Amino acid sequence: MLLPIYTYGQPVLRKVAEDIPANTPEVQQLISDMWETLYKCGSGIGLAAPQVGESVRLFVIDLTIMEDDEHPEYKTFKRVFVNPHLVEEFGEEVTMEEGCLSIPGIGENVKRMSKVRMKYLDENFEEHEDVFEDFIARVVMHEYDHLEGHVFTDRVSVIRRQLIKSKLESIAKGKVRCGYKIKKVEKR
Questions:
Q1: 35: buried, middle or exposed (CB in 10 Å: 19+, 13-18, 0-12)?
Q2: How many CB atoms lie within 10 A of CB 142?
Q3: What are phi and psi of 113, to 5 degrees?
Q4: What distance in Å separates the CA atoms of residue 30 and residue 36, rounded to the nearest whole number?
Q5: How far apart are CA 40 and CA 34, in angstroms?
Q6: What pTM value is reported for the model?
Q7: Phi, psi at residue 102, to the nearest 5°?
Q8: Cβ contacts of residue 7 below 8 Å, gap of 6+?
Q9: Which of 17, 20, 47, 188 has the most CB atoms at less than 10 Å from its CB?
Q10: Contact call for residues 51 and 37 (beta carbons, < 8 A)
Q11: Distance between CA 151 and CA 4 in Å, rounded?
Q12: Out of 123, 143, 148, 169, which one is annotated catalytic?
């Protein structure tokens, strides 16, 4: 089922998400719905459960569409992360532009470490601990931030945040157009 994307200003994007118990029967359906939603959005490569209104520790990433001669490792990088927890970030700090389905129309440079070690469960609740590097590490941490109640604009400089403040406020007020289904911010 296609789920609406919750945009900037929705309270669920600012909550720390809860672990999912292993015997939760709805998890497989949520994973399936998240894949469908990600693919229908057309421009995303990752999606976290808070972005579809669920405050649980789950995200999906599919880099297979980005595979090329320089990045053959993307060809097989389609993963589900259940209950991920950061072990460590390391390597060098790298700046790269990021965007987000929950913050349509805004792209900003974000500094992140080049490597990350993450513990997580896959869709079958089998345990993994992996090190991700470079762009893959960036995507993993971008989605992980959603589970911690953060969005990528929290990581930009104070000056850049001031420059995009009116755009963020417009999104929070529901004044945004994008090519996918969104959850309108409810008036308070």
A1: middle
A2: 23
A3: -75, 155
A4: 10
A5: 10
A6: 0.94
A7: -80, -10
A8: 102, 103, 104, 171, 172, 174, 176, 182, 183, 185
A9: 47
A10: no
A11: 17
A12: 143
Q: Which helix (H) or strand (E) holds 97?
A: strand 78-98
Encode the chain (188 residues) as per-residue pLDDT tens digits. Answer: 889 999 999 999 999 999 999 888 899 999 999 999 999 998 789 999 999 999 999 999 999 988 888 888 888 999 999 999 999 999 999 999 999 999 999 999 999 999 999 999 999 999 999 999 999 999 999 999 999 999 999 999 999 999 999 999 999 998 888 889 898 776 55
d(CA 162, CA 155): 13
**Amino acid, single-letter form, for residue 75:** K
User: Strands 108-121 and 78-98: what pairing?
Assistant: antiparallel
Nearest Cα neighbor of 151 from 36, 25, 11, 37 is 11
Alpha-carbon distance of 84 to 148, in angstroms, equals 11
Which tokens is 176 given?
Answer: 């945004």
Which tokens is 22 given?
């292993």
- Residue 55 is which amino acid? S
169 is catalytic: no
